[in-house]
Amino acid sequence: MNLLSIGGSDPSSGAGIQSDIKTFDSLNVHGLTVITAITGQNTSNFGMVEPVSQKILKNQLDSVISDFKIDGIKIGMVYNSEIIKTIYRELKNTKIPIVVDPVIKSTTGGLLIEKTAIIDFKKFLIPLATVITPNKFEAEFLSKIKIDSEKSLQKAAQEIQNMGVKNIVITGLEIKKDQILDFIREGENQYKVSGKKISKINHGSGCNYSASLLFSLASGKSLKKAVKFSKQFTYNSIKNAHAINKLVEIKNIYKSIPECQTNFVFSKKNPKSIKDILGVLGRIVKTGDTVTVAGHLSYGGSEHVATALLTINKKYPDIRAAINLKYNKETISKLRKGGLLIFSYDRSTEPKNVKNKEGSSIEWGVKYAIKNSEEPPDVIYHRGDFGKEPMIIIFAKTPTLIIEKISRLFI
């Protein structure tokens, strides 16, 4: 599958084109890009914007459209009227799914579209969209309606629909302390999809949402199923990223990174394979007395730790997070004193047919360790074997609970 992202470049890779490429890659599809503007920004500050010329924009579009069978297009930052009109002329006869993410300003406060371009955005780009995905602020901005009630929410969605788009998804509406919902108007029908709220929203989380929504639509899913997939995808990505950031900040955590390095994984509900498990495509590595994340989050980004989690999840479906750490007796003693349920297995007793089959050792070991367990383990470890490094794997329902368990080691 080939998916095209049209938008701005973010040098911090938190949003824009770079974020979309990471999302497409994590979903195992090929990402194509057309850059509309260069920005100077990071996770906390926004600097400058420089739009590309109409000439190079058209050349980029012609290059990818003429050479690739494109299955879906996402349009993000467009900045000015010249960019908007050029995109419209190139795509006006396109029949594939188009998701328009109407980015008005960045999470860090920078304006991503000129005020004079808003009229052309509404006139040319909104009607191109299969679905438009504004957040609450963007929906208010486009509709000129303050959303403070159910009635005003419906009215704002109707107003945007009147601009020529059939489907609207207004994202990130807070309804309860721990819940957040998306309001969908699909043709004449309207409904809501709710999910768990994360207190801090990542720079670029809206890009993750719209890019994964495009993937779902291009895969043939209905809009409702696509929205549910995107909400879960974005939630999992943010949750795991937050936990990894907290892991890196733990003092002396480098002492627990094994020679084979560490991975920190989080699965979808009811995973069928390691492709349903989010991990670091690369590793979390020891760099002197610090720890560095060498790679980005990707489904299928881990093999060994993901296999261990997949095996546990089949018996205990609530267990959806895991991390591997360096083995030593003191670590096991601290974890046990902390009240964690610990199991182990002996790799030297591993059957020959398992040893000779690539990738089957971990599954065998985990199954062996929990074969008589009546409740889910917090920890499974082994002391290694010839040419095999000893290892500890910690399991939990969520990445946050993994961090809580690890924190007991460094009190």
Structural notes for this entry:
With 411 residues, the chain is of the alpha/beta class. The chain is built from 13 helices and 16 strands. It has 2 domains: 2-238, UDP-N-acetylmuramoyl-L-alanine:D-glutamate ligase (3-Layer(aba) Sandwich); 250-410, L-fuculose-1-phosphate Aldolase. The strands form 2 sheets. The protein has a 9-stranded mixed β-sheet with strand order 3-2-1-4-5-6-7-8-9. The protein is elongated, with a radius of gyration of 24 Å. The model is unreliable at 200-204 (pLDDT under 50).
The pLDDT mean sits at 87
Stated plainly, the CATH topology of the largest domain is called: UDP-N-acetylmuramoyl-L-alanine:D-glutamate ligase
Q: How many strands, which pairing sense, and closed or not: the largest β-sheet?
A: 9 strands, mixed
End-to-end Cα distance, whole Å, is: 48 Å
CATH architecture of the largest domain: 3-Layer(aba) Sandwich
Q: Total helix count?
A: 13
Question: What string gives the helices and strands in order?
Answer: EHEEHEHEHEHHEEEHHEEEHEHEHHEEH
Q: How many discrete domains?
A: 2
Basic shape: elongated
